[in-house]
């Protein structure tokens, strides 16, 4: 197993508690700066449009601010929701961000999982994969070609002149937020890295193993792509204190404050067609993801027993991490210390203890 690198998976469900959103963003940037000083190498967050739990509706704008406050931290959204972007604008914004940060952007690519997010923008949810793949194809061309002429199903361009080119050549690392076999195959075909944050450990291990096999079958030259796992993490002085602080926040659900669908009941569109929020789509993977969302709002033990949350003293978390990495197999671990609306002082203590007493055990 490769040397483990660490990062922060930031959650922004706490923004509403600040007097202004500006104060919340300032605090999250301070946390990222502290993380950089402690040795965290990566900083990611989730993009969801039309979601009640996420306040980073313009990832590139937020990251441009972060770029000027940091010097070494690598960052990006995990993921940009590709079907929701104009591809040339996305390519240019990302390339500009890569230049502003002197080559510290990691580009996360994803397609979306919630129907209502698309319905509210009158985008065809069932066509999101085809749309997203077309967007990514155009982004890569915009990064590597002086002009882009393209005639696709969703986008067409006649000698577009994208500027600037990325600082990193030929372009920033591309990560795919991969949950389905289709996404894993897509990443393997294009030699992209993959990240995961929802499935239980057993399922992640199976998917990462499948991805590596699929990647080898493509016959790519060069090093094997990296695998990344994001988990909720809370570290405190003792196991008992860590649980006391983390349990009530974890029981607010996977995305905090009641879960992915929280806050939609008052809207006319609601979940976008069905209670599960998938526009009627069903698959074993979708059903399993729904089970995870339900159980994390019901059971603290479900979180811990399935590796979805690592909670305890520094010594306990070191042990849990070593065991998990051995079983699951990943190169990058992201710790989400901001769990739901956990008080800031507890989040900061966890971030510091993880950086000062957990990460050194893996160097």
Task: Describe the 3D structure.
With about 375 residues, the chain is an alpha/beta fold. It has one domain (about 5-360): Luciferase-like domain (TIM Barrel, Alpha-Beta Barrel). It is about 40% helix and about 15% strand. It is built from twelve helices and twelve strands. It has helices spanning about 20-40, 60-70, 85-100, 115-120, 130-145, 180-190, 200-215, 240-250, 285-295, 300-305, 315-330, 345-360; strands at about 5-10, 40-45, 75, 80, 105-110, 150, 155-160, 175, 195, 225-235, 310, 330-335. The strands form two sheets. Strands 1, 2, 3, 4, 5, 8, 9, 10, 11 and 12 form a ten-stranded parallel sheet that branches. A two-stranded antiparallel sheet has the order 6-7. Helix 1 crosses helix 2, helix 3 (about 85-100) packs across helix 5 (about 130-145) and helix 11 packs across helix 12 (about 345-360). The longest helix is centred in the first third of the chain and has 18 residues, at about 20-40. The chain is globular and about 60 Å long.
Topology:
Elements: E1 5-10, H1 21-38, E2 42-45, H2 59-69, E3 74-77, E4 80-81, H3 87-100, E5 107-110, H4 115-119, H5 128-144, E6 148-151, E7 156-160, E8 174-177, H6 181-190, E9 193-196, H7 201-217, E10 227-235, H8 239-250, H9 284-296, H10 300-305, E11 309-312, H11 314-328, E12 332-336, H12 344-358
Parallel strand pairs: 1-2, 1-12, 2-3, 4-5, 5-8, 8-9, 9-10, 10-11, 10-12
Antiparallel strand pairs: 6-7
Helix pairs in contact: 1-2, 1-12, 2-3, 3-5, 6-7, 11-12
